[in-house]
Design goal:
Rhopdopsin 7-helix transmembrane proteins; three-stranded mixed β-sheet
Length: 313
């Protein structure tokens, strides 16, 4: 075969921030502060929801799962990125790269379907309020999360298998700061149109199908809100959905730009910038979007702080 005398790639070298060599220590400090703040914020959200019985509702159950998912998602990518910013040799083993890709795809794909489940929850709450507790019982909520995880697991297994069964023999220079699909595919010695098509179709399945479900939910939600006679009632109903809509827009906007573009439009510098936004900034802002606009959650945090300061009262 034509690559018999070529070296098989056993590790990859990250070049994601190589053009910013003089700023890497500053980037380390900035990203570390943002990462710690993200971990702290998500920990507060999860612990508040678990400890406060008033928040034991489907909406907050999904929010807790979302926060847990985003914490795990950043843990897969950011610690390694922080180490590499200070390291001379920014490498990852072939197996380590495959594990990283599988894990972040699993969490990212599950995140897409989880947002669709949260959209369905808002649809039931607004369009069928009298049957909400029946339609969104604990079994249904757990089932929706399990289905989201099952879809994410399936897509990540198939995609990772397709990518890492390709031959890698020449360059191991990865123009990114983690093992994303497009940068790794670019290093493959060759890959069939079929594998590219399957990976693209899986991206469509993960992004387009949940987004269509969310859009259908919101068409019905808006229709129901417009029928509410009072302006105060309409505002209150819409405000419960605004946070979810913002998160959906950011998530699907970034993901679609990265994964649904033609390969000819691939740009490593653009992808690095967008990837920083959805691996560091989005997990930072999402909890804040959901909680700072939510009076009920802010009240729960005040109750938790009061209990911590006076545990025996």
């Amino acid at each position: 075969m034509e690559w018999v005398n070529e070296t098989v790639v056993r590790e990859f070298v990250f070049l994601g921030f190589s053009s910013l060599a003089g700023l890497q220590q500053l980037l380390f400090l900035v990203f570390l502060v943002l990462y710690l703040f993200t971990l702290g914020t998500n920990a507060i959200i999860i612990s508040t929801i678990v400890l406060d019985r008033a928040l034991h509702t489907p909406m907050y159950f999904f929010l807790a799962v979302l926060s847990c998912s985003e914490t795990c998602y950043t843990f897969v990518i950011v610690p390694k990125m922080l180490v590499d910013l200070l390291a001379q040799k920014k490498t990852i083993s072939f197996l380590g790269c495959a594990i990283q890709m599988f894990t972040f795809l699993f969490l990212g794909c599950s995140h897409s379907f989880l947002l669709a489940a949260m959209g369905y929850d808002r649809y039931v709450a607004i369009c069928n309020p009298l049957r909400y507790t029946v339609l969104m019982g604990s079994g249904v909520c757990v089932g929706l999360v399990a289905a989201a995880c099952a879809c994410g697991f399936t897509v990540s297994v198939v995609t990772t298998s397709l990518v890492f069964h390709l031959p890698f023999h020449s360059s191991n220079k990865l123009h990114h700061f983690f093992c994303d699909i497009s940068p790794v595919l670019k290093l493959a010695s060759h890959h069939s149109r079929l594998s590219q098509l399957v990976i693209f179709m899986l991206g469509v399945f993960v992004l387009v199908i949940p987004l269509l479900l969310i859009l259908i939910s919101y068409v019905r939600i808006i229709s129901a809100i417009l029928k509410i006679p009072s302006s105060v009632g309409r505002y209150k109903a819409f405000s419960t959905c605004a946070s979810h809509l913002i998160v959906v827009t950011v998530h699907y906007g970034c993901a679609s730009f990265i994964y649904l573009r033609p390969k000819s439009n691939y740009s490593s510098s653009q992808d690095t910038l967008i990837s920083v936004s959805y691996t560091i900034l989005t997990p930072l802002f999402n909890p804040m979007i959901y909680t700072l606009r939510n009076a009920e959650f802010k009240s729960a945090i005040r109750r938790a702080m009061s209990w911590i300061s006076n545990p025996f009262n």
